């Protein structure tokens, strides 16, 4: 019974990954169709939000990135808190393997990217782009070929990707905070303090929390800090205990309620706008320059080498145990799937390169190529592993007969 919420989460995440892939494909097709002008005009048009003394004008695409994606990071924060308190990250023994895998899966891609870019003509500041793993996309690929594979593989991939998300949020905080507006930052801090205080009021109406999150997000947007941090910070203030005895916990209620909207709404909408790169804006010669090559190689090669290498070290050293029932071939397939950077990589790339300027379209295309190649390779390895399991099971059944 303890695994039921996790398994339900995995099903929604995997189904959301399929929707995410379709949305990205639609965005790519629109960007390269006769409707491309209307598509880019729609996502690039200015939109103003004004509530009382708050007023901000951004493009539709930027509102999706700065506004709706804050909700995605809020859900990520809820996932992190739940896993740390009661899930796969709740004890040193459980924590060791996914955290080691996440660390290896961030370090190796960054090093491979820098190997391409620490030379003349390189752009070393883009090293964070291939360090991310897309939970939804990777789980969707695993679900397609994972019939008959141990459930422990899915839970390991989920826990590792959540730890990876935490690392990605930390990188965003360090690398992409430029000019800070102190008064707005103070306002964000006070809003966060208010949410912490509200967490002590068990029966607080959800409307109060929603208003607090909006205020925190608004001040964070104005402060110069990326709103992803507001999402995660706000999530960490959500109490675990139920509002009243016998009810569902507040955190679990938020996660159950918001997760489908994020999986089937926010992320596909982001993919629809972020993956819409026009091939006419991509110089084929630029695809062979250090940055795109570093991104694609970091995702396809760096992720699998880093994840599998860290897992091998953690298990061989006795710090962690192999996921129950999983073989090394299956772990290799999961490690390859971790190269599906997609959502988080696109998010970081959008912060690193000018969207329509030098390097931007090429970085987007490199992420798509590296992610698709990782998904195909990882799925292929896992399909072979699943077929091997079926053959062994059939042979065992025949021996019994």
What are the main properties of this structure?
401 residues, mainly alpha, Na+/H+ antiporter like fold, two-stranded antiparallel sheet, 14 helices, 71% helix, globular
Total strand segments:
2
Question: Which blocks of ≥5 consecutive residues have pLDDT under 50?
Answer: none
CATH topology: Na+/H+ antiporter like fold
Instruction: Please report the distance between the alpha carbons of the first and last residues.
Output: 34 Å
Residues in helices, as a percent range: over 70%
CATH class category name: Mainly Alpha
Q: Please tally the helical runs, counting DSSP H or I stretches of 4 or more residues.
A: 14
Q: Tell me the overall shape.
A: globular
Strand content: under 5%
Mind describing the biggest β-sheet?
2 strands, antiparallel
Strand order of the largest sheet: 1-2
Instruction: Let me know the average pLDDT.
Output: 85
What is the architecture at the second tier of CATH? Up-down Bundle
Instruction: Give the SSE string.
Output: HHEEHHHHHHHHHHHH
Q: What's the quick description here?
A:
By secondary structure, this protein is mostly helical. The protein is built from 14 helices and 2 strands; from the N terminus they run H-H-E-E-H-H-H-H-H-H-H-H-H-H-H-H.
